[in-house]
Amino acid sequence: MASLKTGKITSLFLTEIYIQKAFLSPRDTKSLQEECYQIRDSDAIGQRWSQKNYLGGYTSYASIPKVPLLSSSFLDLEKKIHTHVARFSDLLDYDLKPRQVYCNSLWINIMPPGVVHTGHIHPQSFISGTIYLSVPPKASSLKFEDPRLGFLMAAPLQKKKLKVEHQRFFQFAPQAGDLVLFESWLRHEVPANPAKKDRISVSFNYDWKSL
After folding, report:
1. Strand 127-134 and strand 169-172: pairing?
2. What are 53-60's contacts with CB under 8 Å, separation 24+?
3. Rounded distance, CA 164 to CA 170, Å?
4. Mean pLDDT of 86-110
5. Would residue 75 count as lying in a domain?
6. What is the CA 71 to chain-centroid distance, rounded?
7. Nearest-angstrom CA–CA distance, 121 and 134
8. Which segments of the chain are extended strands (E)?
9. Is the pLDDT at 4 greater than 90, yes or no?
10. Whole-structure pTM value
11. Shortest CA distance to 120 belongs to which of 30, 28, 187, 181?
12. Sign of CA dihedral 185, 173, 56, 116
């Protein structure tokens, strides 16, 4: 059992986010962008589902939840992601070997101007993430919510200038090619896209298996 030092502040129960800038090259992002549109245009089921559940946007989440099964380029992308997920899992002190970690879903998101993705978590997985393929100027950030928000009884107002670790919300402003990983229980959202062009990303969930 770890002991705490008297008179010193110790950070407990950390919420950690893994960010890899320029995970993909501009050439790769452009190629994957084009393929995302091709998949969308051929996915009638996904388009109908999105009309009801992702108003104004498109996601293959319900229709093609495992895009790498259809595309060699997305299969290569999954392999690249795996290394970082295994590394993040180790940094979180999970007792897992890289071969125990696997991708159980990977899907496309196309978010035109004005479209919003409301707050949610990712059940049936332990690490989730997103790779950004197109982030036009002024596009929405990825917004994370403090998981303790519902337990802050009688909390006073916070100062105008806060340490990042004390913020109730944290917004990550990605660029095309960036990778972000987080634990699947962490609630997050994407506010309405104010950009004039599509914001395109690939999201994924990772689970684990015993050996």
Report:
1. unpaired
2. 54/115, 54/117, 55/115, 56/112, 56/114, 56/115, 57/109, 57/110, 57/111, 57/112, 57/115, 57/117, 58/108, 58/109, 58/110, 59/107, 59/108, 59/109, 59/110, 60/107, 60/108
3. 8
4. 97
5. yes
6. 21
7. 23
8. 17-20, 58-59, 101-111, 117-120, 127-134, 142-145, 169-172, 179-183, 188-190, 199-208
9. no
10. 0.94
11. 187
12. positive
Residue at token pair 């071969």: 99
Specify the CATH number for the domain of residue 82.
2.60.120.620
- Asked if 199 and 140 touch (Cβ cutoff 8 Å), the reply is yes
Considering the chain, what is the average pLDDT of its residues? 95
Output the pLDDT for position 5. 67
In 3D space, the residue among 147, 54, 152 whose CA is nearest the CA of residue 107 turns out to be 54
Q: In the predicted model, is pLDDT for residue 87 greater than 70?
A: yes
For residue 63, what are the domain limits?
23-147+166-208
Into how many domains does the chain fold?
1
Could you tell me if 15 and 183 are in contact, meaning their C-beta atoms sit under 8 angstroms apart? Answer: yes
CB 64 within 8 A of CB 70: yes
Task: Quote the pLDDT of residue 191.
Answer: 97
15 within some domain? no
User: Per residue in 195-204, pLDDT tens?
Assistant: 999 999 999 9
Q: Is residue 30 part of a domain?
A: yes
